[in-house]
Amino acid sequence: MQYSFEYIKTDKCTEEDISKAVLKACDCLEQIYDSGFYPKLTVKREWSEHNPDITGEFAKPKVYRWYLNRELRKLINMGARITITPSNKILKLNNPALLDFLDEDDMDFTMKKLFLFRPERIDLSLDRLEHYTGTKAEDFQRFILFTNYDMHVEVFKHKFPDCVKPSRDGVQMPAYHHKLDDNLGFSLVNIGVGPSNAKTCTDHIAVLRPDLMVMVGHCGGLRNHQEIGDFVLASGYMRADHVLDEDIPLSVPIIPNYSLNLYLKETLERYGMNYRIGTVYTTANRNWEFSKKRSIGEIHISRSIGVDMESATVATNGFRYRIPNATLLCVSDKPLHGKPKLSGAAQSFYQNSKEKHLEIVLDAIKMIRTANPDGLPNASIRSANEPLMGGPGI
After folding, report:
1. Which residues have C-beta within 8 Å of that of residue 107, sequence separation ≥ 6?
2. Domains of the chain
């Protein structure tokens, strides 16, 4: 195999030299994959006492080239030795042996995000992402929004009339992409209602290494002093959806990214919106009111301020795959206060809230994009024994 790459920064390296090296490295990753093999990246970090060598394999590196470019540039600037070589032959997705490489019970979730997924998993997830969303994986941008209503999609399409749309009708979770250079635009996915869809979509989107995920949905307001149209900014979650209990124990605290929440809070206040910060109760049972005693008992104990069906699932998978995430919901009904979600009132609420809701999140992300070109700080979702890319220690 003729494709290989090795580079280490020297004292004479200029910024132009590093840019050329990163370009060649990304090209090499793509050339190896296109030739029928998974490319293997080895990072040697002489500053690390306990984990000087980190390795990983990739599939379809072209899809998330923006991320590889950013991470490799940081590594080279820190003086890491970068080596790229061919690894195993690409496994076809219809090969029964594929299952041997997909079992997440064998995954090392302490791995650096750059090397979190095996190449077989990346290949399958990107294929399934196209199936579910009706758009190509390379169209996804680094800032991901999830909604469960078509009305947010309509606002997004009106705001970005040239956005990439699903290539066919009837897809399960249609996606829309406002594309910018270096994947600095926005992607909106209508995941529909329920935690199962939320898990399915975030399972696959995680391999794209997005900079953040935000749930933009509606909730039932649970406090007396909330009004229809008020916002709920989640500070934590009551995981009554139970979709990820086997993967992340309920004893593990799941919280949104602190910096992302600060930007959302600042934007809410700039817009003069009424909002509350608190726990969101996420359930898998849309008719949770039919089990009043049990559900309301959990709501009271958790001191939740909003109830929905997706937020905790998105947040838990964000934590699991180390993607900064947050939740901004709008109160559409108050089921505990004689204001259940009824068709006529709901439609009126949707028309009055949909544009402002999406604008708040987009404006917050624009501030983040400017202030954090290397992505949001994510120390809160880094494992204690995760190999650090820079600095002393592990």
Report:
1. 116, 117, 118
2. 5-120 (3.30.1730), 134-380 (3.40.50.1580)
